[in-house]
Specification:
By secondary structure, the protein is α/β, with parallel strands linked by helices. It has one domain (6-199, 232-240): NADP-dependent oxidoreductase domain (TIM Barrel, Alpha-Beta Barrel), CATH 3.20.20. It has ten helices and ten strands. Bound molecules: NADP nicotinamide-adenine-dinucleotide phosphate.
Length: 280
Amino acid sequence: MKSIPTVPLPSGRAMPVFGVGTWRMGECARERGAEVEAVRAAIDRGITLIDTAEMYGDGEAETIVADAVGARRDGLFIVSKVLPSNSSKRGTMAACERSLKRLKTDRLDLYLLHWRGGPALSETLDAFAELKAAGKILDWGVSNFDTDDMRELAALDTAKECATNQVLYNLTRRGIEFDLMPYCAERGISIMAYSPLEQARMLRDPALNEIAKRHRATPARVALAWLLRQKGVVTIPKATRLDHLDDNIAALDLALTADDLKALDARFPAPKRATPLDML
Ligand SMILES: NC(=O)c1ccc[n+]([C@@H]2O[C@H](COP(=O)([O-])OP(=O)(O)OC[C@H]3O[C@@H](n4cnc5c(N)ncnc54)[C@H](OP(=O)(O)O)[C@@H]3O)[C@@H](O)[C@H]2O)c1
């Protein structure tokens, strides 16, 4: 695999543009072995970005990541998230400690507020600042923040440190291109596109399949290549099946042509007006 490009973060660190997700992992004991193996296989293949959250499998996804990582923590970029219900200052500090323990690590590369709600945003940011000063998180960001939420964030003292906004973004969910994406781009805030395959629901689409056929590729590869060609966009497809993992990695080598992009725009049009942010 060729080396994965990165996006710069306000801290001066860098985040790979491609990684793996772990939602739905840790929910079924019978699947655990395959899930650990899938994350381990991703690391074996050179993927360093792993996205998880305290919510996933009620903490079990983080333990799966820990088992997959083993002694290879250095060089990885591990992301986790605090639930809004835990996002008071004290709650965030405590949630982070629990995540660190489950992940068997002393630091998170990136810690996100999973979505808006609960305590004042300033409390969460105060906790992020303390966790950062203590070296327990190296960067922080937000998730599922719409443009209004980003404006509210911008008024707070440490807002300039915000490294990313992780949101639902894929060919079938292009609403953010109208306002949220330009807002973030102007401020150097990367977009982490979650559910890049619309949880596999988009993969039967005829237009996507037609383009895939032209490249002897798969619809998933086309959908991911479409995201990866965009500046400041990071994506984190989840795959427990190893053939899916390899297919997704191959998207890094797929260059879409101007004709492909035209066909994709015709089938999945860019937004013409502001729409509220979708969330899964
Ligand atoms: N911040 C948030 O609120 C939020 C919300 C949703 C997701 N996320 C993050 O984003 C990650 C990705 O999103 P997601 O898990 O919702 O959905 P996704 O990555 O769009 O899709 C995952 C599904 O697609 C299948 N798949 C993967 N690669 C495939 C391929 N090449 N061909 C056919 N099927 C393929 C997977 O099957 P197998 O697993 O069987 O291989 C799985 O069922 C999550 O895991 C999570 O880390 C964050």
